[in-house]
């Protein structure tokens, strides 16, 4: 699948050209023009990475705004449901076509080939960046207005800004409409917002550039090897490197998005809360990709009945939610199996594992949960189901031999990844996480954190200037 790539936050172009210009113009224009400036900047940001899709993106936003407006003005319940259905069909239809049509055709061709029929020879469809994220936000807007949780936006450009706001357009966080509706209409920008936003952006940039990019080199090297002859030690190094890569990559992006939003006067929802110290898979999903979990709960799990029904139906609902969650991450059976893998452990939690883990104690629970999460990441990283099971075999073959090439730089940042991932499990670490991310600082601490942010910023920029290796895992979703 061809994927259009945008202007990543951890790029020289974004850091030194796009963002400073946008912030300068945004701060200088009158309050009434700020949303227009941000909308223009957001559309330019999207067009930079996906120029072929900008017209479709704009047209879908205009259509959804008009449909939701008609739904809100309608007093007939039946008509309201019809307009809601039209909006859902529009948004899910666009997502299904661009993200899943290749997957559908590939599986249909496999079936046709198996039954000795002629296969379909269709052109491959390119995947627009951020489609999974802005589709969910479009659905959130329509459903929140339908439920009368929040009033619809009166100005079309405010709505387009909500969908296309560049800090969270490409890879989230997924901002539910009811959590940001008032901020879209009116917000204040203080000096504290600007400083705290820069600090949060610098933390995310450091996570991404210094840690995620460094461990990603070894992860990519290992997953490119022949699993049939790979030593078990190499396999474990590779999957642990990927485990920390995906966390610091995605949480780093989320930190940068939250930081940029704060500099613009927005307060975005948190997306991560040190997930690797979780004591169960249920807790892991309260700490990992929090905005996706919140969306799935609010707009899918609860409408299906949630846990207010029979245990058997609750388990079914969990399977549905995590099947869709897996498929949302990518059009591949590996993602579907990854989702079902986590859904299975959530069911086991409800059946007996939560009680068992509670008796086992805090440390064993963290270790076991982390082990399960790591095994799940194999499915997430592998290109095919066969490759995933080949990698599992390498993990547990207890096969000796040479291990992956690790450098002193990798060892340093791998150790830092472990430290920052698990230190919050200790009381002193939890205290520092609250002080650093809590958002309430004394003057002395604010000055200290600002200088830490500057140091991280310049270290990260220095690292960017000497390498062109700068992937973002969640851009493919």
Q: What can you see in these coordinates?
A:
The protein is mostly helical and 477 residues long. It has two domains: 12-186, no CATH class; 192-279 and 361-476, no CATH class. It has 19 helices and no strands. The protein has helices at 12-28, 34-49, 54-73, 77-114, 131-146, 156-164, 166-169, 181-185, 191-223, 232-263, 281-287, 290-301, 311-329, 333-360, 362-381, 385-395, 408-422, 427-437, 443-465. The longest helix is centred in the first third of the chain and has 38 residues, at 77-114.
Between the first and last Cα atoms, what is the distance in angstroms?
12 Å
Query: Mean pLDDT, rounded to whole units?
Result: 89
Give a short account of the largest sheet: none
Radius of gyration: 23 Å
Specify the structural class. Answer: mainly alpha
Strand content: under 5%
H/E element sequence: HHHHHHHHHHHHHHHHHHH
Q: Please tell me the total number of domains.
A: 2
Percent of residues in helices: over 70%
Unreliably modeled segments = none
- Helix tally equals 19
Shape: globular
Number of strands: 0
């Amino acid at each position: 699948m061809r994927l259009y790539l945008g202007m990543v936050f951890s790029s020289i172009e974004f850091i030194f050209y796009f963002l400073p210009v946008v912030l300068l113009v945004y701060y200088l224009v009158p309050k009434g023009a700020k949303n227009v400036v941000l909308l223009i900047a957001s559309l330019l940001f999207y067009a930079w990475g996906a120029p072929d899709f900008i017209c479709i993106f704009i047209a879908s936003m205009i259509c959804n705004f008009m449909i939701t407006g008609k739904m809100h003005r309608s007093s007939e319940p039946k008509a309201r449901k019809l307009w809601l259905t039209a909006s859902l069909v529009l948004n899910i239809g666009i997502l299904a076509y661009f993200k899943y049509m290749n997957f559908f055709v590939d599986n249909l061709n496999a079936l046709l080939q198996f039954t000795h029929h002629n296969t379909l020879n269709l052109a491959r469809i390119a995947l627009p960046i951020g489609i999974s994220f802005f589709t969910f936000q479009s659905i959130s807007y329509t459903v929140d207005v339908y439920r009368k949780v929040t009033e619809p936006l009166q100005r079309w450009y405010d709505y387009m800004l909500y969908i296309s706001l560049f800090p969270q357009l490409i890879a989230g966080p997924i901002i539910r409409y009811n959590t940001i509706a008032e901020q879209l209409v009116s917000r204040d920008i203080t000096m504290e917002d600007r400083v705290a936003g820069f600090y949060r952006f610098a933390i995310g940039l450091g996570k991404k550039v210094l840690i995620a990019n460094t461990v990603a080199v070894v992860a990519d090297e290992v997953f490119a090897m022949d699993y049939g002859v790979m030593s078990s030690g190499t396999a474990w190094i590779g999957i642990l490197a990927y485990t920390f890569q995906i966390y610091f990559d995605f949480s780093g992006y989320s930190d940068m998005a939250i930081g940029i939003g704060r500099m613009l006067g927005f307060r975005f929802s948190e997306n991560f809360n040190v997930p690797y110290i979780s004591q169960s898979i249920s807790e892991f999903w309260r700490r990992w990709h929090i905005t996706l979990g919140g969306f799935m709960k609010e707009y899918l799990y609860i409408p299906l009945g949630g846990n207010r029904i029979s245990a058997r139906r609750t388990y079914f609902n969990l399977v549905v939610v995590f099947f869709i969650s897996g498929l949302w991450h990518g059009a591949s059976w590996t993602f579907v199996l990854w989702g079902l893998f986590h859904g299975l452990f959530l069911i086991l939690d409800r059946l007996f594992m939560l009680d068992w883990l509670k008796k086992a104690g805090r440390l064993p629970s963290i270790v076991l949960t982390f082990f399960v999460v790591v095994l799940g990441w194999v499915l997430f990283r592998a290109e095919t189901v066969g490759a995933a099971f080949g990698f599992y075999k390498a993990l547990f073959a207890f096969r000796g031999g040479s291990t992956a090439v690790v450098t002193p730089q990798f060892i340093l940042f791998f150790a830092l990844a472990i430290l920052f991932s698990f230190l919050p499990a200790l009381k002193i670490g939890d205290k520092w996480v609250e002080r650093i991310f809590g958002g309430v600082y004394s003057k002395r601490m604010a000055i200290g954190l600002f200088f830490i942010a500057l140091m991280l910023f310049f270290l990260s920029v220095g690292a960017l200037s000497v390498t062109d290796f700068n992937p973002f895992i969640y851009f493919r979703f």
